[in-house]
Amino acid sequence: MQPYELSLTEAADAIRTGRLSPVELVDSVLHRLEQVDPRLTAYVTVVADEARRAAREAADDVAAGRLRGPLHGVPMGLKDLIDVAGAPTTASSRVRESHRAREDSTVAARLSAAGAVLVGKTHTHEFAYGLTTPQTRNAWDTGRVAGGSSGGSAVAVAAGAATFALGTDTGGSIRVPAALNGVVGLKPTYGLVPRHGVTSLSWSLDHVGPLTRTVPDQALVLAALAGHDPRDPASLDVPARDYLPGDAEDLTGLRVGVPRTYYFDHVDPEVEAAVRHAIDRLQALGARLVEVEIPLTRYILATQYGLMAPEASAYHERTLRTVPELYQDDVRVLLEAGELMSAGDYLRAQRSRSLMRQEWARLLEEVDMIAAPTVPMTAVKAEESAVTWPDGSVESVADAYVRLSAPANITGVPSLSVPVGQDAAGLPIGMQLLGRPLGERTLLRAGHAYERTRSAHELAPAA
């Protein structure tokens, strides 16, 4: 096994015990990046010289007994919405070609303080306003979409071009590409991870979170990211905590909600079979399955777009007036459409969100978490814009990918996507676990218990 193939947990242990140098790890990841990125296009920019310099400094620190923690010397990618002082934050858009960040975002500063080594900025669907990241190719099949909007981060991790990465999630933008590329993605509780210095799509729906190879890796990154920052008005002031899920596989007493409605409607049969099989594994580990009804389902997509569209258009108001030609057509149309929404429409979406939060709080008193597909189908071919379901109904690819992930953004509850198999074409399938606010450790515990029933490297694309 090459160093770039190691999970974060494995790499951290090897560095801590002296079996691996940060220089070896970073060199391996950079070499892998050079091999795969010309065909995958996961990165906007690569900072190889800076990464090697930081790796040498980390190696010196480790040798001198100054190990900062499990992220010290570990290479990462950051979605190019996340500010790093002195570096461009392009949002994968011509609108931002001349932009350079004046200071680190909160998450970049925290990861830097933990000793993580930045290897580059990863592609996003332009300004995170999309579910495919068209410039990036799927790590398993370059003729298929990477998922979005954190497609570059997911592909980099899946392909070994980063040991971990950060993405953002406004309607599924961490979990969708995680599912489509066979990696683990976490959308934390709203406000748990500060967003200061992160380009916004929709302020009331935006989250920042990790993409990793394994569930324990998630816990290590989340511990470094979480914590109050007064510069983010939504930031939660909660005590620091340990998110490590432990090694126990016994889930006795855990109540897992299995939706009767919504989450298994219009879902590819192979996706449904893989997710239900994974849910059965949770039951075999001791969890108790409880059938549940998902509340207010007819309002989910209307509420998602009713919040996101006007907030996104407000953020882009000036540049949409002055340089509209610099936006990609799909994003410009969405931004222009958002300006047509009335204040009444936005207020109705806010009211709908409040009602959903109330009903989901009641639902999550009955169960500890909900298990469901992350997305209704695997990665579509790059040229496909719609999917036709067996009943003859047609759905856009964007609507299909956001449909099952949007409830967690609207309600703010945490959601973890874990790989649970492949379809007949060999493409990854993801299951999401949704829990109570600040219930990340419970999700990680269940996700890790499931993960331990499979090989940690079972889901990895061919070199």
Please explain how this structure is put together.
The protein is α/β, with parallel strands linked by helices and 463 residues long. The protein has a domain at 3-251: Amidase signature (AS) enzymes (Alpha-Beta Complex). Helix content is 38%, strand content 15%. It has 15 helices and 13 strands. Helix 2 (22-40) packs antiparallel against helix 3 and helix 9 (300-315) crosses helix 12. The longest helix is centred in the last third of the chain and has 24 residues, at 343-366. The protein is globular, with a radius of gyration of 20 Å. Residues 24-444 form the Amidase domain. This is Aspartyl-tRNA(Asn)/glutamyl-tRNA(Gln) amidotransferase subunit A. Keywords: Ligase. Its EC number is 6.3.5.6, 6.3.5.7.
Could you provide a short overview of the structure?
The protein has helices at residues 8-16, 22-40, 48-63, 106-113, 151-159, 175-181, 215-225, 269-284, 300-315, 317-322, 329-338, 343-366, 397-403, 406-411, 440-451; strands at 43-46, 75-79, 117-122, 164-169, 184-187, 207-212, 255-259, 288-292, 369-373, 386-388, 394-396, 415-422, 428-435. With 463 residues, the chain is an alpha/beta fold. α2 runs antiparallel to α3, α7 runs antiparallel to α15 and α9 (300-315) packs across α11 (329-338).
